Structure formats: C-alpha cells, structure tokens
C-alpha cells in the first residue's frame, strides 16, 4: 500500500533558516549554518539555534541576523548566448589548468558585473561549443534544470 501525505501550503512555503540567509546573499550554506548555530539568527524575536528550524516569510515569519531583518534577493533569470571560445564559468579561480587562469574569456564577461553578481549557470557548454545558457540566482530552478529527475 502506497500512502501519500500531502503537505499543507504553509509547509511548502517554509524554508530552513540557513536557506533564507543564503537567498539573501549573506553567505554560503556552511557559513549560514554556523550563524544559526552561534545564536546570531532570530525567528520571530526568538534566538534560533536549531539548524532544522524553518520559516515562512510570506506567511509573516520574520528572520533577523544580528538584529537586522533578512530580506531575500529578488530572483533573476538571464538567457545568455555563449559563443565558442568562452569558458562556461562565472570565474576561473578554481580552474584545474592554473596556467590558463585569467587568460580565457568567461561567461561572466558577457554581462555587466552588477548583474552577474551571485548568479550561477544551470548546466555547462564545452569551450568549443556555443548555445544558450541559463544564469539565475534561483537555486530551485537551477537544480530542476541540472538534475536528471528534475522534470519527472
């Protein structure tokens, strides 16, 4: 017997506190988990030390970091044509070919820096390939595009 338990709409809109902090541009998942653990994050005025605690911002929950209200970034979506010879990367500081760092044009060079900040690319194209690449700060959409099971 398969039993499916539907989540309430509130549960579907709730996110872990550290995800809310990441979405607001506070830092990486690891960094934001440490902020929650250290007691610097509050949910509705109460110190939140539980890493599994969730909040529903659209439902009225208020998350603060060091007393300041946390507001997630607006979601951005860009479709960019990547020409041949452009590296499908926003930066190449972690490139395994260290001698080429800074010598190849990057995907991020095709758009203004104030727009490309905190955007990631969904998928990759080879250096000698060209085509459309989705740039977004919406990690949920990015995972849907990248994961094979995303559209099933």
Automatic annotation (TrEMBL):
Keyword flag RNA-binding: yes
InterPro entries: PsdUridine_synth_cat_dom_sf, PsdUridine_synth_RsuA/RluA, PsdUridine_synth_RsuA/RluB_CS, RsuA_PseudoU_synthase, S4_RNA-bd_sf, TruA/RsuA/RluB/E/F_N
Pfam families linked: PseudoU_synth_2
Gene3D superfamilies recorded: Pseudouridine synthase I, catalytic domain, N-terminal subdomain, RNA-binding S4 domain
Keyword Isomerase on entry: yes
Keywords, sorted A to Z: Isomerase, RNA-binding
Domain Pseudouridine synthase RsuA/RluA-like, first and last residues per copy: 77-142
Gene Ontology BP terms: pseudouridine synthesis; rRNA processing
GO molecular function: pseudouridine synthase activity; RNA binding
Family named by the database record: Belongs to the pseudouridine synthase RsuA family.
Name recorded for this polypeptide: Pseudouridine synthase RsuA/RluA-like domain-containing protein
Annotated organism of origin: Proboscia inermis
Native organism taxonomy: Eukaryota, Sar, Stramenopiles, Ochrophyta, Bacillariophyta
